[in-house]
Amino acid sequence: MNTGEDSVSHAHPADSSLCLLEELLLHVSDSKSVNILSRVSSLHRNGIHQLSLLCVDQKTGRLLQQRQNQLYRTPRTPSVLAFTVVVLCLACWLGCLAAAPTEEEWTWEVESSGFLYDDTPVTHELHRREARRNVTVSRDQMERAKPTDLSCDSVTRLSRYVLTKAFGRNMALDLLPLPSCDQLLPSSSSIQINPLELMQLRVKPWLLHRVLVFLKNGGMLPESQQVKALSILKKQLLQSRARASRKPVFTTKDRCPDRNYNLLPWRPGHDKDRKVVIGPGLFLKLESSATVHSIVIEDRGALVFADYPKYPITLRTRHILIKDGGQLHIGSAKCPYSATATISLYGRSTDEASVEDFGRKFIGVDAGGTLEMHGRRALSWTLLSRTLYPMGLQHGPYRFERYWGSRGINVRVVDDGTAQVLASDRFDTHMMVNESRRLEEFLSNQPSGAIVAMAVGDSAARSLSLDSREYIMEVLGSKYIKHLGYRQPWALVGTLRGGPLSTTENRRLYQSSGSTGAAIARREFQTYDGTRFTVTAYSEWVKGSPHIGFKVEALKGIILNLVDEASSWKTGDRIVIASTDYSMYQAEEFSLLPCSECKTNQVKIDGKPHYLHMGEIVDGVDMRAEVGLLNRNIMIKSETEASCYGQNHCDIFNYDTFGGHIKIQRHFKSFHMSGVELTALGQQILGSYPVHFHLAGDVDHKGGYDPPTYLENLSIHHSFSRCVTVHGTNGLLIKDVVGYDTLGHCFFLEDGVEQRNTLYHNLGLLTKPGTILPSDRDEAMCLRIRSNVFGKYRPVPSTDCMAVGTFWIANPNNNLINNAAAGAQDVGIWYIFHRVPTGHSEGTFPEGQAELTPLGIFYNNRVHSNFKAGLFIGKGVKTTNASAENPREYLTIDNARFRPHQDADPAKPRVPAVIDGLIAFKNNDHGAWARGGDIIFQNCGFADNGIGLTLASDGTFPTDEGSSLEVTDSIFVGESSNVGCHGGQNSYWGVGANGEYRTLPRNRTFPIRGFQIYDGPIRLTKCSFKKFTPTADRYSSAIGFFMKNGWQISPQNNVSFVKMERSVGLNVFFGKPGQWFGGNDLDGDKTSIFHDLDGSVTGYPDSFVARVDNYLIYHQGCLTVPRWNGVICTGQYAQLYIQARRPENLTLLVARETFPSHPLRLQGVNRGAPYQQYQPVVMLQQAYIVQWEGRAPEEIILYPINFNRGNWIQVALCYPKETSFKIISDINQRQTGKVHSVEHYTPAASIEAVLVNSEKRLFYFDSKSGYLFLHIQATHHRKGHSYCSKVGCERIKILAHMVSTTTMNCPPNPFPVKSSRSPAKRLSMSQRVATPCGRCGAPQAAISSEPYKEYVRVQVLSLSKANIQNGLKSAFIKVNDEVFLFKKQGLFFVVVDACTGEIKSRRHIDMFSVPQATSAIDAYIISTVKERSIVLVCSRDIKDLPINSGLSAFMKLGSSKPIGLFRKGSFALLGYKGQPNPPWIKIVNRAVGLEAASLQQYVPLNLNEYRCPGQGKEYRKDEKLLRGLLQQNQLELEGWRGP
Description:
This protein has 21 helices and 95 strands. The longest helix has 23 residues, at about 225-245. By secondary structure, the chain is an alpha/beta fold. The radius of gyration is 42 Å and the shape is globular. The strands form 14 sheets. It has a 22-stranded mixed β-sheet that branches. The chain has a 16-stranded mixed β-sheet that branches. It has an eleven-stranded parallel β-sheet with strand order 3-5-8-11-14-34-37-40-43-46-49.
């Protein structure tokens, strides 16, 4: 049967040796050689790979001497010559029999016999044969095969060995001169030995007993010591028998497991029906590929894979079950496996019955089982350190071909430093006389050194002048152009003015048949950064049609620059490069090619990328693409069918999704996996995942596991269901795991009870939808799979499903450090909250505990290329089954809010959840969304997201005491210089703010926002904003508000110390009615507001920014900003929370008495609830008018929230004229539900009495106007972000008894006079902050995934003559915030110390005299610029240059070749003087007519590669955190065990 390539059994060295030995037996005749070869052959035939040397007496046939040696220690395929030499050497050895034997010869056989040492288990040929027969072998069979007696010769040799070890060789020879029984043993000896000294030797007691009896019979032991020695020996024999009665246990200790001397060789062959049970005490070493039905390892049995680097092993089986002391080993942590091992799980979902608890097609580790797999240590994943461009070239490849319409000479001009096509034209020199002159002018205007490609289309000869032909010969060195004939195909590629040796050309004769064959000219070039590319031109006739074309393309074998040393990656390895755009489908796979020229951090790929993969920090945010290694030398894979079948969701998938899986259950003995590749594993069945820890409990020190359980350096790719599932398991370390191209949540914490797990430096990308849970499904799956909903309920995909995430964290008490979520259908990292534990864990935690549990460590994680959000904190899952009351499926997405408290106790203080070092870019919707409190984002970077960050509060008043959210020390970028790449399911491609085409989030018209305010309170401080500029298609603002917001917004939203860079065109935007904002008229839309504490947003300190039409906030001192649709106002603001009952569906109209004709119309946020609530922002110390669209509610409760002590407002509420009131004030303590300080309001005689006597509880009802007047004032101190004071929330309850059922139309303004306090002061331009804020903005230049590195931000802008004529005046170099302007002609240098970032020197070099300028540049770079220097160069108004103006000095700064500056062009360089060349070197050399040369880069300082003096070890907070977690687990274990 053909079992596939991986199941081919490779020839074993022992088998090869056996065949060769038997061949040699046919060609020898002397008996000595025959004896030698026969013995060796016998050993091989029985699987014992030793070489035996025998000396046989030719007359008697008695064995005279024997010697054994291991035939091989590592597998080798022996040659005939090698074995012939061996045999000849053995024959020579036999001639030494007459010589005196050596001590080594005496002792060798005894030591290698397997019977000598007391701790060496018995090994016998019978056991080996039984193992090879592949039946269950028990320890009893092995014991029955144990030899119980020794021959006389064996005892003699053993005695000589014992005597030699105890007393030396001479005494042994004196007592026993011959190594056999064929000698005279005296009855009494003159030499007496002390038997007690023999007792110290490491010899099995029963063997030593035989020696003592033998020596006693020879008279060599004194009588007085015999009895004592034999008594001691008797005790040892009893102990030895007791040990022998115990069943042995396979241990590896510090050794390589396959070198354990207890192992029996196992080569079972291929039999799909063979069911293997490795039983008690049987330790097998798999030495060749095999196919079996199944393997069960139990009862202290062990299976070990042989480690033969040249002989791969593939084991095919339906399943492997390890339990009850069974062990499976492939390598060990201290001895990684170096060969290639594959476990291939086969079988269909319809085959046979499933195994209880494990199903089908699995590796299962049950109670007592041990699985240890440790492959070669290789770099798991890293980052690109230089950008990888589509098809390998910065400006992309170029292809052009045409048949008709190409008559004449077609020309392309290519930049030799960048491979960019600079110019193209066609010159009809066949029909048009003037075209020859135009061709000459065209070539004369091109820069020297440019690449010129020419191809004739149709014909070009008739009108091509002799002068033009000679000019082409002069400037391009053409040999064929002078005699170019009619319709003759001709192609040329050369360097302009580079001489004849720089040109390649080809021609063909025109054939009357109409087909000529192609004249092809191709030449290889190199860019400034060392990328090799070819330029090709071709010309031909094909069946009577002219055909021409040009190609510019990178050579095969593009070299990648990586952040980390990757010498562990080998030729043929497969890697994946993550997308750095909005679509996760831009991830690309490549194989590695041999690369002798590569540095240790470089690899060469086979193939060319289709997409842009960034390899640098862009606009201050680290956008470097992740690069993951896919293969490992240990592989576990599945064999699948060619297409879907059976009940495997074939209506959704057109391929087989029934892969294998690995399941680890509670009470396993040991499980560690590293350096393993898992591919095509998982099933679209609940519980069958590539790696699944199922209800395993504590798997670290707390659970008694030492070392703690871990998964390290795994590659899990092309998975059919998840990557790693942690279910009811705590304390697991998941480190350096790559999860790529998977269905459903990748790293999945299941029931909401999993805690203390640490995910460290893992990479997940291309996470696709699956079918198992509602949250796994996409829209189509959600609508199709309805078997678990109630009745005919139709799921709503956007709210019930569509939540698949790369990291699905169901309990916050887990640690995420250095991870990357590089592309999921929905979310990169999702913290989801189970109101109660679900599934098998139901009932283990009280309700709400997960939402209250403090967050573990979140540090330095990356999220990008996700559709919904990079990071999502919030939401929960439905924890009840579908029912008529709630027909949605179990575990659909539900509401939940994260509110961490100490010990998960809401009565204890809140514990802020810290999101430290998040990098979020190119996420279609959100970079991050967080609902809850308290939550702090710090040191984060957001770029190119639809919305950078949205913070939403924990809850709503009055259900919580108030919480806060904060973002600090972070960078926000709207449209970065990473313009992306069209394709790979990127849906939107349009013009960016700078006029350049780019990929876009969500839609071309989607309003981009950096920081979005939902409700609050929030704090935004020490943050930088860049590149938020509106376009004709869309709004783009640094700060925005949640669109179509029906919720309320807090005036406690505070902004301070922010930096709006010059590239920000819109600081704030409140929205306008339209496509995305709808009517822009919901409650939250209207009440949007924030407080600019220091004026860093508006220029006016202590100002509030609100929507332009909110007259509760506006006053005559405000400034209107039409572009923002907002106003800037001063004053004091708080909120009035209004709760209304009976009826609950009214619309509220509230107006400030200053603007009674401009009421704010609020609809409320609780439609359909037992009460309605409204929460307008109000200006303090003002009077307000409250009316209703409809009959006034019978019960109203007014809460003054965010009021400080003494703050007040006055309100007039409209009621029917005959209404009577009962009004009570009290203080509500929300946590306890108790109400205290109850006071009753009494009616006053007039409005004035109410307004003046603020300390009294008075009300006045004006029956004429229908207004009830109240004075509302806070009497207790409020602290921080709390809504109310510590004693509780002050409130006023109004119970109205209305006789009339009609709606009352009250007059617009019932207040007789203006409020006693006038509005805040008027703002004017003179009050605007004029001086720059030195403390504003993020303190770091860049947010990097290597936060331990410091960066310097450098910018260069160079100007050509044309740029200056268009209005640009100054070229400049900028280093961080220090700017150097250059207004002179020439080149300008700024040198920065690469170790400290200090500016070391500056230099201007005039270019009027090129020879002098060249010498000056050489002298400056060689003599003045020191080693370990960053060198910045810009140009301004470069004049005409001679033909050969190449500057070789720039090669010392990192250019791969001399740089020729373009005449009247512009030039910018970021270089480095020192070795090796870093990957951040950039060269921009622009010809005349192109945009100005410019560059911006974030350059790392003080790298190890720079070899800076006094450089210390980098402080790695991530590594310190991991060490701390592991040590904490150990300390907790010791504390739990007690002293």
